[in-house]
Amino acid sequence: MEYFKKILRFAGPYKNYGYLNIFFNVLYALFSALSFAALIPMLEVLFDKTKEVTQLPKYTGLGNLKDYYLDYMNYNVTQYSGDDPMKGLVLVIGLVLVLFLLKNFFNYLAMYFITFLRNGVLKDIRNAMYKKIVDLPISYYSEKRKGDVIARITSDVLEIQHSFLSILELIVREPLTILFTIIIMFLISVKLTIFVFVFIPIAGMIISWIGKSLKKQSDNVQKEQGQFLSIVEETLSGLRVIKAFNSESRFYRTFSASTKRFFDFSNKLLNRQNLASPTGEFLGILVIGVLLWFGGKMVLVEGTLDAPSFIAYMGLAYNILTPAKSISKASYGVKKGNAAAERVLEILETENPISDKKNAIEKASFDSGIELLNVSFKYEDEYILKKFNLKVPKGETVALVGKSGSGKSTISNLVTRFYDVNEGEIKIDGMNVKDLTKKSLRNLMGLVTQDSILFNDSVAKNISLGNENATIEEITEAAKISNAHEFIVDLKEGYNTNIGDSGIKLSGGQKQRLSIARAVLKNPPIMILDEATSALDTESERLVQDALEKMMRNRTSIVIAHRLSTIQKANTIVVLQKGEIVEQGSHDELLAKNGTYKKLVEMQSLG
Fold this sequence. Notes:
- This protein is of the alpha/beta class.
- The protein has helices spanning 2-7, 15-37, 39-46, 65-81, 85-135, 140-143, 146-188, 190-196, 200-211, 214-237, 239-244, 248-274, 276-302, 307-348, 408-415, 438-443, 459-463, 472-481, 485-489, 508-522, 538-552, 587-593, 596-606, and strands at residues 369-378, 383-393, 397-402, 423-428, 431-432, 445-449, 526-530, 556-560, 572-577, 580-585.
- Helix 3 (39-46) packs antiparallel against helix 14 and helix 9 runs antiparallel to helix 13.
């Protein structure tokens, strides 16, 4: 229940729907009990047991409530029917029908209003989760499987929704139905009702025993669902590679092993859950059987209870069974949903290590330069950068080169604050990036990566990602600067063409030029290019390189390069090795040193 208390805060905006649900549930519970109590006068008319009452009875208190109710009904039947008993029967049948109609009408209204609350909570939890998923740092997803996160925002949230409804039934509707029914049962026969209550704790203990292991089994089911969703996500992302290496059978084996575990966990969970209904029903019938014996003795032998009252009492006793079964089902739902709530709250309550300070500064301009001072950083145990120092003056292009794993891309991740440094500091215009808001920091920067990250939307929407209010003229101008305009106008619907999932309908060079157009349209003063041309063929590289040079004019640029031919015009080239600077200078200066840089150039020339 501790998790559901936290989930309850999402019901705040919909509390009025909750109050209306409670109000109509109270009416439902009341009329549910009264509808069975109304069977007594109907049965009395049927069995010709109706007493003739010619004077309107007087109410003398709760102790005499049952006699007053029967005398009042008998008075009305006597007045209405006269010498024709069928008239009295029509009257009491009409009363029963009206009470059952009202009971079901109030039930519908209660369910009508709870629907808005349930779906509202579902919507708000999903929105909060999505916001958190986007806000959490990239490092979070190196530890979590994407499929598991998807499972949490889909099936786990849905499980909470069902359990949330169960709790409202558990705490309002069903207990009240039982309460009102028991009150009327006491009014009919105190002795018989006390006898019934001997059996209820026994039934409760058995039902509680069944539900003990549900949370653990439900947790296993939800974790395994996240596992196979991860496999599906990885399969779709790497389908080309899987097919190229004929690895379909291997991935199928991995997936089928996961679904087999899911099958086993689900069977255990559902079989335990399914045991609740037959067990509850048998226990209920057992209570009814004992009641028939004990109550029949009161009617036939002792004469302390009349037959119509006993039959109505049996109806009331059975009326307790349905809400009791619902409560047991709801308690299972709560245990099952508790596991889902725990998984959802794990994401919602994860502290974001990269967050804005309380008085973070909104920085709107870039004036002097970027500076990395004694920066050390590690992803896990081993340091990628060690006591690293670098200055990038405004308006200059600084290129970072070196072998894979030397720390080049790490620098772009730290400058954009996708990760925070372990030691040292990064400054922009003399201000520590941790003192700035993440939004204003990233507004100063444009990023073009090696992998062109595009979205399943139109060309125009992809280009305008960083500037949603851009006009088509501005989008077109950005496309022209990035050498993308020519191929865009040749597409079927031009700038309105949908490029498919991850831009699958475009070539590598076309995707990269769209990424550059996106950065151009954002028009930031600082540009970060992370191996932007390394995955391209020679023709595409030439077009992309030309686009990059146009884009970098009058901008401060950090260029991470694999192909050294693309950075010869950089003001400063920094050669990295195992997280440390081994050489620094212009292209000509570094060649003259006859060191590491020259060896890299010669290796690529030979290649």
